[in-house]
TrEMBL record:
Keywords: Cell membrane, Membrane, Transmembrane, Transmembrane helix. Coiled coil: none annotated. It is a multi-pass membrane protein. Belongs to the 4-toluene sulfonate uptake permease (TSUP) (TC 2.A.102) family. It is found in: Cell membrane; Membrane. It holds the Pfam family TauE. This is Probable membrane transporter protein. It comes from the Bacteria.
């Protein structure tokens, strides 16, 4: 029951906000299912990547993905994801969790401040490449998809409306997740650890359903209030993780 509820929340977050999947998934796997940090991060990349990709495929007919931004933002993000995962392989897991907690706090702030921006794209290539690289580095280093940065960036710099920003974010997250997983899987093989594919499969299936439901109801929900509620949840979770990590140093 815990996994089902958690998976639905993860999917709903991705479907409604285009972000928050990994930020919810990693604590669930570490504190709820008692997985190690590296197993949780790797599993999160598979889960969030799968949910994002399923949602993208189902909604391709709506033509909401801005493919120019996928290229300008997504390509440097994928390269940086691999570099971030490589850097993580030389970093203590406690440091990763400390960075993860700080990333969650940043996400809370961004979600609280984000506002809707009107209409179609006005692409800023240099900013897109820079932000894509930043998001990719975070994805690789701490296993987050980076949607909390991608969605506000697409709304602010590319001036995409919320629905297009969410759809484009999910496409970029799915690409980044594949790259990050491939690097982390190499590390797991080297240290002879394996993933729990039953848990990954269950959360991915239920999360995909939750994400599709989230996209259906997103237009009927007050976006600003939803973001603020999510920001509060992130702040509470990040504070808990930060305290736990500092106590274990």
């Amino acid at each position: 029951m815990f996994i089902i509820i958690a998976a639905l929340l993860i999917g709903l977050s991705l479907g409604v906000l285009g972000s928050g999947g990994a930020i919810l998934t990693i604590p669930v796997l570490i504190y709820g299912l008692e997985q190690s940090e590296i197993i949780a991060i790797t599993s999160s990349l598979v889960i969030v990547g799968t949910i994002s990709l399923v949602t993208v495929i189902v909604n391709l007919a709506k033509k909401q993905i801005n493919w120019s931004m996928v290229l300008l933002f997504g390509l440097p993000s994928m390269i940086a994801t691999y570099m971030g995962a490589w850097l993580a392989s030389y970093t203590e897991q406690s440091i990763q969790m400390l960075v993860f907690a700080l990333v969650m706090m940043t996400a809370a702030w961004r979600m609280h401040k984000a506002k809707a921006v009107a209409n179609t794209a006005n692409i800023a290539p240099v900013k897109s490449v820079f932000l894509g690289g930043l998001v990719g580095t975070l994805t690789g280093f701490v296993g987050v998809g980076g949607g909390f940065l991608i969605v506000p960036a697409l709304m602010t710099f590319a001036r995409l409306k919320m629905s297009a920003a969410v759809a484009t974010s999910l496409m970029i997250i799915s690409l980044n997740s594949v790259v990050g997983f491939l690097k982390y899987q190499q590390v797991l093989i080297d240290i002879e650890l394996t993933l729990d594919w039953q848990v990954i499969g269950l959360i991915s299936v239920i999360g995909s359903i939750g994400s599709l439901i989230g996209q259906k109801i997103a237009t009927k929900l007050p976006q600003q209030k939803i973001r603020q509620l999510f920001a509060l949840i992130l702040l509470l979770m990040s504070s808990f993780i930060l305290i736990q990590t500092l106590l274990n140093f």
